[in-house]
Amino acid sequence: MSQIVKTPFTRLQPADGDVVLVCAHNGKQVWHWYSMEDGSTVEKINLQTGEKEIIEAKWICICEECFGKYDSPEEAVAGDRIWCGDDPFIRENRPS
Ligand SMILES: [Zn+2]
């Protein structure tokens, strides 16, 4: 049986309403978070209008698999989400 070790929350946390760019994978256990101080952007096609949109985000969140697969987190981005709530979520990663 694996034991979940709780590490401290990181100083920076996504705030309610922040845009988070995400990879295409759900339900993974390990996530890699990137705080983009200057804002990161990704192009997206609006499915209703067919127009290109530029999405600007403060955060990128990708899974372990994408972390190992791509040279930069932007390459793994498949969509965007709006973060809900101000609860701390991201914990420090400490190698055991
Ligand atoms: Zn992924």
Could you list the spans in which at least 5 consecutive residues all have pLDDT below 50? Answer: none
Biggest beta sheet attributes: 4 strands, mixed
Number of helices: 1
Estimate what percentage of residues fall within beta strands.
35-45%
Q: Outline, from the CA principal axes? A: globular
What is the average per-residue confidence, as pLDDT, rounded to a whole number? 86
Strand-pairing-aware structural class:
mainly beta
| N-to-C order of helices and strands | EEEHE
Query: What small molecules does the structure contain?
Result: zinc ion
- Strand tally, please? 4
Helix fraction, binned, reads under 10%
Q: What is the CA-CA span between the terminal residues?
A: 17 Å
Radius of gyration: 15 Å
Q: How are the strands of the largest sheet arranged?
A: 2-3-1-4
Describe what this molecule looks like in 3D.
The structure is a single chain. By secondary structure, the chain is mainly beta. It has one helix spanning 64-69; strands spanning 19-22, 31-45, 52-63, 79-82. The chain has a four-stranded mixed β-sheet. The longest helix has 6 residues, at 64-69. It has a domain at 19-82. The chain starts with 18 loop residues before the first strand and ends in a 14-residue tail after the last strand.
Task: Summarize it.
The chain has a domain at 19-82. The protein has one helix at 64-69, and strands spanning 19-22, 31-45, 52-63, 79-82. 6% of the residues lie in helices and 36% in strands.
Compile the SSE list and pairings.
Blueprint: E1 19-22, E2 31-45, E3 52-63, H1 64-69, E4 79-82
Parallel strand pairs: 1-3
Antiparallel strand pairs: 1-4, 2-3
The chain binds zinc ion.
